[in-house]
Structure formats: structure tokens, C-alpha cells
Amino acid sequence: MELGIKGKMALVTGGASGTGQATARLFVDEGAEVIIVDRDGDSVSRAQQGLGKAAHGLQADLCVADQVNGLAQTVRERFRMPDIVVCAAGVTGARGHPLELRDADWREAWENDFMSVVRTARVFLPSMAQRGWGRCVVVTSENAMQPYWEEAVYNVAKAALLNFSKGLSRVYAKDNVLVNAVSPAFIETPMTESMMESKAQDDNVSREEAIDTFLEHDRPHLELKRRGRPEEVAATIAFLCSERASFVVGANYRVDGGSVATIAI
Predict the structure, then answer these.
(1) Taking the complete model, does pTM exceed 0.90, yes or no?
(2) Contact, 157 vs 89, CB < 8 A?
(3) Which domain CATH number covers 137?
(4) Could you list the residue range(s) of the whole structural domain that residue 150 is in?
């Protein structure tokens, strides 16, 4: 399917690994130019090299407002302002009883998962509106609709992010800047890999056994009984960034293998 994004400039946060990297690769395959943004400079360089000449890499900590402003200035001076922005950066944060988590735990998730997106949108979406075309996809999570008690800091940040993306979509739709969300569940990324390694260690079992146990007890509604692949999420993101999705705005596409049991959202 021709997505109609050839020649577009895309910026992907969290683009050095996981879903962000898979999305950047798909954009390049579709003929777009891509700017990968991530916190770790070495990871950015490796990801950029793996994607070829159509990819550029920039290091920035999106939790720091000055760095986000600097990122926008660098993009403007070295490349051009993006037509497409995908916000895929984030952390799972601390886990545990909601009332036993520290203030610092809540702030960490809020800054990484929520405010990073607000800051990114603030510096890049207005220029899209001025040009009269743009796409923004915010990567949230199944946790935004189906919270798990031990992941409270992540639940709250991702639910707020889903609400934010819906509100933002209403502001920018008139300028043909379409904002949507994608909510994955249990994807094969460094984030879930770390979770499974910790679980395997805690339970004194193999990594494969830890994954099977997690699926059975912690994600009982994930009907496909496996972790999703980053490419499966990237395909949905790319569609929402394309001309094929020109009548989709303010939506939330769940790429969750059936993990979310409700049909409410």
C-alpha cells in the first residue's frame, strides 16, 4: 500500500530502539527522511547507521525543557521542521503498591512519559499547522485503559497522555494536522525484555518460563499468547501518519493482541 509519505520529514522520539526504531525503519522504507531522537548518544549513532543516509540522529533528554528547545533549533538549522512526529519515548517507571511509591517515582514517570510528549508537541506542531499538513502519533499503552495496580505510575502517565492527545487533536484538526494515539501491549522491546529478565531472576526460572507465566497470570486477555513485535506497532503508526488515514483524527488504535478486555475505548 502506498502511504503517500515519500519525501516527508519524520521525527521519532525513542527512535534508537524498540517500537521507535521499527517505525523509523518503516518510514525510511517508504521514502521518508527520518530524524531519530533518543537520550543515549551512542544508541542514536548505531540506529542511524543501521538506517542509512535517509536517517539522521540527535541526542536529547526530553525531560529537560532546554534540551527540547535546543532540539527544535538544531532540527530547524540542520534539516527542516518535521511533517510527522512520533512520540515513542518512555519508561515503565517504578512498580509497587501505589501508596508506597515515592514522590520521585511518580515524577520520573510523569516527566518521561507525559511531559516529554507535551514538550515535543509544543516545539514541532505549530510549524506543521503553519504549513497546513502534519501528522502526530502518540504512543500510549494498554495501561491507559486497563491499569495494573503494581504499575500505577505508568498507568497514570499513559492515561493522561491519551487524554492529552485527544484534546490536542481537536485544536489542530482545522489546520490539517492530525493527532492520534497508538496503545500497544507487551511488545518485544528493551523495556519489556528488562521486565522479563527481572521476573525470571525473581522467580528463579528461565526467561521463556517468565514470559509464559506473565502471559497466563498478568495478561490473561492477551488472546494471541505472545509478545507483539515492534514492526506490528510500527505498521499501525505508519498508517496513521499516511495519506491513507486522512479522515482519522483523535483516535486510539490498540495494538494489544486482545489484551484490553473492554470495548469502551
Answers:
(1) yes
(2) no
(3) 3.40.50.720
(4) 9-186+229-255
